[in-house]
Amino acid sequence: MSSQSFIEKLDAIDRRWIFLLMALSVGIPIFVIGITGTRFPESPTPTSLATFETIEALPEGARVLMSFDYEPASAGELQPMATAFVRHLAHKKAKIYCQTLWAAATPLIEQTLRTCVIAQHPEWIYGEHFVNMGYQSGNEGVMKVILTDYKQSFPNDYRGTPAAEIPMLADIVNTSSFDAIIVVSAGYPGSKEWVQYVVSPTLTSEKPTKLVAGVTGVSAPQLVPYFPTQLKGMLAAIKGAAEYEFLVNQAVEARNPGVKIPAQFMDAQRRMAPQLFGHLLMVGLILVGNTIFFARRRAARLALA
Amino acid sequence: MNQKRTWTIILSVAAILLAIRTFTGPGMGKVYVENSNKAFIEVNGKWVEAPVGTTSAVSWVKEIGTTPGAYFAANAVDANQSVIHLSTSRTLGVWIAALLTLFIFSFLYRDNPFYKFAESTIVGVSAAYWMVVSFWDTLVPKLFGKLAPNFVAEHFMPNIKRETDYWLLVPVILGVMLLCRLVPRAAYLGIVPLAFIVGTTSGLKFVSYIESDLLAQTASTMKSLAVVGDGGIEVGESIKQVLLFVGVIAGLVYFFFSVEHKGIVGKTARVGVWYLMITFGAAFGFTVMGRIALFAARCEFLFDDWLWLIDPTGRRAIADAVEIAVPALLL
């Protein structure tokens, strides 16, 4: 077979072979990791490290608002972040205020609280240590309101209990009442709007709002410029989640020597193996595509000559 | 071998493996629940959890999700136990989710009725979900609850504040005017609420963009090129600052079209193009990462929750999975 005909065959390859290759390069590592339980080591990048350090620096009993601004379609990428955040806050014994500006996220809040708080800290009381304020419509309008009056936008929790009857909301006035805000977001409204409407107006105030964000890969490049002035930390895509998860697990092990970290708290780290092989395939395909391009260009020039 | 035959063989092997997996071992795609008895009594107008054995309590059985491992363990102790049992509805949910996932993936082979069915189902369910949520979370508490609070409190939301606010009639009128766009003869009425929406959004966005994207970002860029630390100039950080400075200037020059891109301007713009290309490359890389993460999560769902081939979180005995999965795959 001549090299020219091979290049032509590659150029005309059915795209479904590429889909099959991608399915295998993602599926096989998942299967192997699922059977063997092995994981790749993580070395945290500055943005993930800053996220961890911001949460780690909070005192016991700190009030942290956590906004789950995503829906099940992005849960594969963002749920490991949300789980790691809530778990870290629970280990820091922070008071966790959950809310969402995305209608489909309320069950995700429930699931996260069940996994990380109710199952791990059965002694914690709803309304005193953690609360789910549920969904509020209005996008950035809600942010503008909670900047001055939190309970105006969230008068009840997701069960309908009035804010006045929830003990941990007694001293919450507005977003400045929180020691930190965590946003896990998939798009609009999300971390960008939180920076614009909640963080930026307080940048020059006595107590600037501390915001850390966990975002999808698609929106990460837009948010990088905000770090570290407007965003104190940022987890970018599943890689950021894996790094942060690793740091949280390390901190939990350090505080409780001999403790075994349940596998359910290593979701992001587990998903890094398919990432590696998927990316290797992508790099290979890009190289092959470029080789074809240059080979065809050379052939065209030779034909003209 | 032609492509059609190759693909037929691949899909047939997958179907055979699935059939083997369905009829061997402890099964697949089953969801178990544990019965939990709940009992409440009313004390001084408040409902509190009732002590065990209270006859006057209002009680019901709540099904709490549990692991197949818990079911296997409970059955090993007492084969006739009924506390942990199979949940038909949740099992059906897993199977529907798995089949819809496969239907969506089938589009990669070619467009087909299964894909169309899954696509239409997702669109329909999403629209219905949004409609229900918008009605109960927005219209009822924020509109009806303000216009007729007593009625809403008595029939739908007992904890709602019983305060009337007739100013909400203004958005009602604007909303009705917006719907007039659907009627050709009255479509012009929709211009007013549209103008209101555009004006309000512009006002909100304008101030926030100036504050957070123009002023704050400009301030973040205007920093010393030489970063001085405790031990003198920090080379790495200084290089970062220089690269940032060059990137900002070159990027701005590229978008400055009032001057022809020739000479020094052209060369600077060329550097700007390189910065843009690197940025687009990073964005593409992040997008690929995101998409692979979503695909990996679906694969995990299929392998773990549906097929029971792997058990990364230890919800079932992993030995079973190896025992069944490996021979099936080696077939």
Number of helices of chain A: 12
Instruction: Tally the beta strands of chain B.
Output: 6
The averaged pLDDT of chain A comes out at: 93
Structural class of chain A: alpha/beta
Radius of gyration of chain A: 23 Å
The CATH first-level class of the largest domain in chain A comes to: Alpha Beta
Oligomer description = heterodimer
Can you summarize the main beta sheet of chain B?
4 strands, antiparallel
Overall spatial form of chain B = extended
* Sequence of secondary-structure elements of chain A: HHHEHEHEHHEHEHEHHH
Domain count of chain A: the total is: 2
Detailed description of the structure:
The complex is a heterodimer of chains A (305) and B (331). Chain A is α/β, with parallel strands linked by helices. Chain A folds into 2 domains: 3-38 and 271-304; 46-267, Rossmann fold, CATH 3.40.50. Helices cover 50% and strands 11% of the residues of chain A. In chain A, helix 1 packs across helix 12, helix 2 (15-36) packs antiparallel against helix 12 (272-304) and helix 3 packs across helix 10. Chain A is elongated and about 80 Å long. Chain B has 331 residues and is of the alpha+beta class. Among the domains of chain B are: 30-35 and 60-86, no CATH class; 225-296, no CATH class. Chain B has 10 helices and 6 strands, in the order H-E-E-E-H-E-H-H-H-H-H-E-E-H-H-H. In chain B, the strands form 2 sheets. In chain B, strands 1, 2, 3 and 4 form a 4-stranded antiparallel β-sheet that branches. Chain B has a two-stranded antiparallel sheet with strand order 5-6. In chain B, helix 3 (88-105) packs across helix 4 and helix 4 crosses helix 5 (149-155). At the A-B interface, helix 2, helix 4, helix 8, helix 10 and helix 12 of A face helix 1, helix 4, helix 7, helix 9 and helix 10 of B.
At a glance:
The complex is a heterodimer of chains A (305) and B (331). Chain A is built from twelve helices and six strands. With 305 residues, chain A is of the alpha/beta class.
